[in-house]
């Protein structure tokens, strides 16, 4: 940690502690982001819309310095930082921006823990998801647009009209 570079990272929490962790991070002035979606929950006596974490047990944290890293480790409910090898995993600002954009349109998204075979990469050219790279996959008998969040082993499935898509050509290809 001698050469700490600030940025977005991911904290893994105890189950159902995401909101508590986010509140505690705010109290110690560490910026955090907990993407949530409204979901209809049914109990035996009622139905109610509740905000549930988009990625259960994960909270995104924007660390400015080493002190904020060590401060966050002492918050109740935090188990660890997500790591790649021995380094804590950094999340690019664009991924955070994309997640923020996605949760603004909750009717069009669905989260999946399933593994999908890689498909043709397409580019969204119109609508609220303009600029996203995605794939078309078959899910529950329907064609959906897939955006992968590899760091969390999750996929976000979107409903986007086909006319809003164009074939993506990598800069490496001729």
CATH architecture of the largest domain: 2-Layer Sandwich
| Helical stretch tally | 3
Fourth-level CATH superfamily of the largest domain:
NusG, N-terminal domain
Helical fraction equals 10-25%
**H/E series:** EHEEEEHEEEEHEEEEEE
Low-confidence parts: 169-174
Would you state the CATH class of the largest domain? Alpha Beta
Radius of gyration: 18 Å
Instruction: Label the structural class.
Output: alpha+beta
What is the beta-strand fraction? 35-45%
Compute the number of strand runs: 15
Arithmetic mean of pLDDT: 81
Major sheet: size, sense and barrel closure? 6 strands, antiparallel
User: What is the CATH third-level topology name of the largest domain?
Assistant: Alpha-Beta Plaits
Distance linking N and C termini: 41 Å
> What is the overall silhouette?
globular
What is the count of structural domains? 2
Describe the secondary-structure layout.
Elements (H helix, E strand, L loop, with lengths): L6 E7 L4 H10 L3 E3 L2 E7 L4 E7 L4 E6 L2 H8 L4 E4 L1 E2 L2 E2 L1 E2 L1 H11 L5 E4 L8 E4 L8 E7 L2 E8 L4 E5 L6 E3 L7
Antiparallel strand pairs: 1-5, 1-6, 1-9, 2-5, 3-4, 7-8, 10-14, 11-12, 11-15, 12-13, 13-14
Overview features:
174 residues; 15 strands; disordered C terminus; 2 domains; alpha+beta; SH3 type barrels; 3 helices; Alpha-Beta Plaits; five-stranded antiparallel β-sheet; six-stranded antiparallel β-sheet
